[in-house]
């Protein structure tokens, strides 16, 4: 029925399994066929424990439709327990990296106005409890009002390795955006050259001499007559890239008055970093982390259903 790949990588003592879908089928039926040693209850436990990934994203719905070419991964172990702080949750930590889910409203790093309560300061205090000599280095940033996955390095070496090879080693950066109106077509690519002014506003141009190339792929996931939920894949990582590109196509992100929004129905910027996948700078292993889409985003899609 379907082609089975070799076990993908080791997590502890249990091996992850990866399968390629060859024909349309629901997720439960696919898993029953691929895992004959497990019954329906075993498979439901795998789903509820977030051990089933489709193209790297966790799915828990047993009747989710699969299409040919998708990769289904069965994780050998349950996701580790996360550590929570006010404003952020630690998703992963090793001797080189810390990966977090940052809440909206928390700065990534200090500014002239806010020097104490930032993601950097919270994590810096956290690692210094183990050893006062421990240091933290930022790899990439999220805007204050953007939530989701971001990571820090525990050494200058790891920070440099990640930043210098960012485009090559970062395999997936998926964002979810709640925008005003519904883009047409419902799937597309926005490409332009971005430059930041002295007033810290990013401007977009089609002139290659104007700034740095930025490419954003978008797809409408759900919509009402007034709003749409988009999934966005970044090919580049420029400052304010998604916010500017959504303004470019006439569908600014809700709450983003800086880049053209007229409404703020959820009381925050409607942008969330959902998935980050990258090659570990030291081990070379493929790492993948996700942060659930905020409920306020999803609730906007139910208003007119």
Write up what this structure looks like.
The chain is an alpha+beta fold and 305 residues long. It contains 7 helices and 21 strands. It is globular, with a radius of gyration of 20 Å. The two termini are 37 Å apart. It has 2 domains: 3-74, RNA-binding S4 domain (Structural Genomics Hypothetical 15.5 Kd Protein In mrcA-pckA Intergenic Region, Chain A); 83-302, Pseudouridine synthase (2-Layer Sandwich). Helices cover 19% and strands 35% of the residues.
Summarize the structure.
By secondary structure, this protein is α+β, with helices and mostly antiparallel strands. The chain contains seven helices and 21 strands.
The computed structural class is alpha+beta
- Counted beta strands: 21
Q: What's the story with the biggest beta sheet?
A: 12 strands, mixed
- Relative helix content: 10-25%
Give start-end ranges of low-pLDDT stretches: 1-13
**H/E series, N to C?**
EEEEEHHEEEEEEEHEEHHEEEEEHEEH
Number of domains: 2
Q: How many angstroms separate the termini?
A: 37 Å
Overall form: globular
Please name the fourth-level CATH homologous superfamily of the largest domain.
Answer: Pseudouridine synthase
CATH topology of the largest domain: Pseudouridine synthase
């Amino acid at each position: 029925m379907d082609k089975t790949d070799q076990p993908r990588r080791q997590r502890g003592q249990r091996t992850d399994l990866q399968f390629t879908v060859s024909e349309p089928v629901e997720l439960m039926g696919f898993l029953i066929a691929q895992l004959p040693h497990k019954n329906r209850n075993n498979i439901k436990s795998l789903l509820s424990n977030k051990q089933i990934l489709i193209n790297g994203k966790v799915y828990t719905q047993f009747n989710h439709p699969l299409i040919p070419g998708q990769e289904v991964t069965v994780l050998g172990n349950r996701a580790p327990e996360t550590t929570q702080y006010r404003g952020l949750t630690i998703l992963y930590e090793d001797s080189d990296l810390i990966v977090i889910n940052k809440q909206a409203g928390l700065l990534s790093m200090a500014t002239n106005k806010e020097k104490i309560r930032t993601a950097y300061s919270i994590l810096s205090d956290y690692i210094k409890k183990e050893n006062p000599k421990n240091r933290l280095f930022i790899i990439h940033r999220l805007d204050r009002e953007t939530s989701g996955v971001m990571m820090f390095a525990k050494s200058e070496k790891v920070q440099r390795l990640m930043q210098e090879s960012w485009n090559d080693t970062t395999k997936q950066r998926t964002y979810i955006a709640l925008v005003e109106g519904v883009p047409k077509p419902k799937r597309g690519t926005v490409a332009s050259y971005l430059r930041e002014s002295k007033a810290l506003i990013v401007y977009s141009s089609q002139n290659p001499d104007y700034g740095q190339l930025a490419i954003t792929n978008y797809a409408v996931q759900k919509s009402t007559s007034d709003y749409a939920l988009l999934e966005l894949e970044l090919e580049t990582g420029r400052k304010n890239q998604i916010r500017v590109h959504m303004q470019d196509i006439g569908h600014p992100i809700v709450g983003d008055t800086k880049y053209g929004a007229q409404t703020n129905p959820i009381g925050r910027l409607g942008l969330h970093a959902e998935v980050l996948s990258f090659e570990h700078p030291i081990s070379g292993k493929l790492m993948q982390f996700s942060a659930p889409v905020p409920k306020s985003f999803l609730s906007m899609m139910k208003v007119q259903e």
